[in-house]
């Protein structure tokens, strides 16, 4: 039951992009086509879950035991940067087709606040490791969901006659606002 | 004159939010009131100025290949300084900004200025560049936060302007952030064109 609350809470009620405003840059940047949105969603999911596990272990077994909790921000961002680099190298070697699909998104992920945000939230909410993993996976799904829905909307906007001043970023932001309003309907679900 | 131009560019011409559309996460996340926007803006300004100064000082010692990771470590160090200072002296503001303080580290504006400006220019110009972009960012955050606060809770900097019976709560909630910023960018684009 506890896990169900975490999952629904992270995907729908407190959607990471639309309600918590994490990962807005890729949300606006790579959401022009559904296919790239799916690629980005996959790459983020992969790194997000991996980063949450590693940062959780480092925080609890190294930083806390040595009394170095104040180094959290520096250590976490370095881990994420190293992890992204490592994933890139391994993917290139092990699965070239997957590298082809996700490769261009990987460098962008280091500065995606969703990754660092979820890693920090997992520590803040004092989850155990299993809950942390479930939380990370749910957030990854939430991110991908928001990205793909939004890409679908933007593909439609492309074909519409948008007033001149609102073309580009403004209309995208307003559409995102309306999407966020739709997601507000889920509040109170958990 | 040149430094003056360097200083004024951040407000409208190269405003990080309205023109370059960078650093969207804190922009949308913390601007439920003008005060939060100001706090976030000044914290980011401090990090920008300090990181720009240090990076322009050490730029010739950093090998090209590890440039970005080194910049991130320098930025993260100053973010930790801000985080600890705010926790100690303005705990209420620290609490309401929450997660977004450590997330200054991944704010594209800071890394962007380090890469595009501080790694190529002298100390004074880099400091002024950081100040200019930082204050431009703060200006945008206060404007956005102010509009949302006026429409959503009928106040500005916590001073009541009109009765709460007439407010529309949606503007302080998540959707309002997207919608107000969308119209604000459209408005600024229009001004810049004419």
What does the model show?
The complex is a heterodimer of chains A (190) and B (194). By secondary structure, chain A is mostly helical. Chain A has helices at residues 2-13, 24-29, 34-66, 72-94, 96-102, 106-109, 113-124, 129-158, 169-184. Chain A is globular, with a radius of gyration of 17 Å. The termini of chain A are close together. Chain B has one domain (2-20, 28-193). Chain B contains 8 helices and 2 strands; from the N terminus they run αααααααββα. In chain B, α3 (34-58) packs parallel to α6. Chain B is 67% helix and 2% strand. The radius of gyration of chain B is 17 Å and the shape is globular. With 194 residues, chain B is mainly alpha-helical. The A-B interface holds A 18-25, 28, 70-74, 77-78, 81, 110-113, 116-117, 120-121, 124, 165-166, 169-174, 176-178, 180-181, 183-184 and B 21-22, 24-26, 28-29, 69, 72-73, 76-77, 79-80, 83-84, 99, 102-103, 105-108, 111, 170, 173-179, 181-183, 185-187, 189-190.
Poorly predicted ranges of chain A (pLDDT <50, ≥5 residues)? none
Helix content of chain B: 55-70%
* Overall geometry of chain B: globular
Strand composition percent of chain B: under 5%
Main sheet summary of chain A: none
Structural class of chain A: mainly alpha
Strand order of the largest sheet of chain B: 1-2
What is the percent of helical residues of chain A?
over 70%
Give the SSE string of chain B: HHHHHHHEEH
Would you spell out the secondary-structure blueprint of this structure?
The complex is a heterodimer of chains A (190) and B (194).
Chain A: H1 2-13, H2 24-29, H3 34-66, H4 72-94, H5 96-102, H6 106-109, H7 113-124, H8 129-158, H9 169-184
Helix pairs in contact in A: 1-8, 3-4, 3-7, 3-8, 4-5, 7-8, 8-9
Chain B: H1 2-8, H2 24-29, H3 34-58, H4 67-89, H5 91-97, H6 108-118, H7 123-153, E1 155-156, E2 159-160, H8 174-193
Antiparallel strand pairs in B: 1-2
Helix pairs in contact in B: 1-7, 3-4, 3-6, 3-7, 4-5, 4-6, 6-7
